Amino acid sequence: MKKDIALNRAASICSKSEKCRQDIRKKLEGWELSEEDTDEIVQKLIEDKFIDESRYVRFFVHDKFHFNRWGKIKIAYELHGKGISDQYIQTAIGQIEDAEYKETLTKLLKDKRPGIKAKDSWDLRSKLLRFARSRGFETELALRIIDSFEI
């Protein structure tokens, strides 16, 4: 594929939804462009504000927390996997309000609790904790909320 056609297609993709540098790089590699052309296209998209990693991170954190109901640990892990800098990650995760975060985890655990088959209260507690951790919530917070339930 020609470089100018690839640039236009990549710009079109970026204008439809937020993408990070790595997402576009993977797409360009799939189009069998040289590494030099890929670097130039990504740099051009950054200069033209089609790719803005801080904006991408803000939207990613918002969407994964509000729609997927992921915790901070899982969100940060996914963003690290995309090669996003810690500065952007910590800033965006810091925007999540503590009260809303606790409320989300409490609701998740309350909704999960009736569906769990447990032998005793210890088994129920450990299964709820495992569930919270799989969603990326902190162990300490999850234990405090689980302990506040009447088990």
Written account of the structure:
This protein has 151 residues and is an all-alpha fold. The protein contains nine helices and no strands. The longest helix is centred in the C-terminal third of the chain and has 15 residues, at 98-112. The chain starts with a helix and ends with a helix.
Outline the secondary-structure elements:
Elements: H1 3-16, H2 21-30, H3 35-47, H4 53-66, H5 72-81, H6 86-93, H7 98-112, H8 121-134, H9 139-148
Helix pairs in contact: 1-3, 2-3, 4-6, 5-6, 7-9, 8-9
- Quantity of strands, as a count: 0
Structural class: mainly alpha
Please bin the fraction of helical residues: over 70%
Q: What percent strand?
A: under 5%
Largest β sheet strand count, sense and barrel closure: none
Whole-angstrom Rg: 20 Å
What is the number of helices? 9
Overall pLDDT metric: 94
What is the distance, rounded to the nearest whole angstrom, between the alpha carbons of the first and last residues?
61 Å
Overall spatial form = elongated
Along the chain, the helix and strand elements come as: HHHHHHHHH
- Give the uncertain stretches in residue-range form: none
Give a summary of the structure in a few sentences:
The protein is an all-alpha fold and 151 residues long.
How would you describe this structure in keywords?
151 residues, mainly alpha, 72% helix
